[in-house]
Amino acid sequence: MAGIQSMIGGEVTAFTSELEKARAEAMDRVKQRALELGANAIIGLDLETTEIFQSTVMISATGTAVIVEPESG
User: N or C: lower Cβ tally within 10 Å for the chain?
Assistant: First the structure.
């Protein structure tokens, strides 16, 4: 089905769906890693998409794990 959609143009919904799942998994992993480090927030979050092979795409999420505290005073 994706092959037909790509031939006639427009969005390839199967590909879009898989990208959305991969993005959500990357976000879950970066959040989990931050929690393991004792953080309660992530700043400077960067999501990158890289084509590794013709049909393989990698999504990575990086950021800085921090502890956010209420301002005192």
Answer: C
Query: 14, 9, 11, 63: which is closest to 41 by C-alpha?
Result: 63
Q: Quote the tokens at residue 29.
A: 């992993």
Q: 60 with 47: CB under 8 angstroms?
A: yes
The amino acid at residue 37 is L
Rounded CA gap, 70 and 45, in Å? Answer: 21
Spatial neighbors of 44 by CB under 8 A, at least 6 apart, are 63, 64
Structural contact between residues 24 and 36, judged by C-beta atoms closer than 8 angstroms: no
Residues 6+ away with beta carbon under 8 Å from 65 = 33, 34, 37, 39, 41, 42
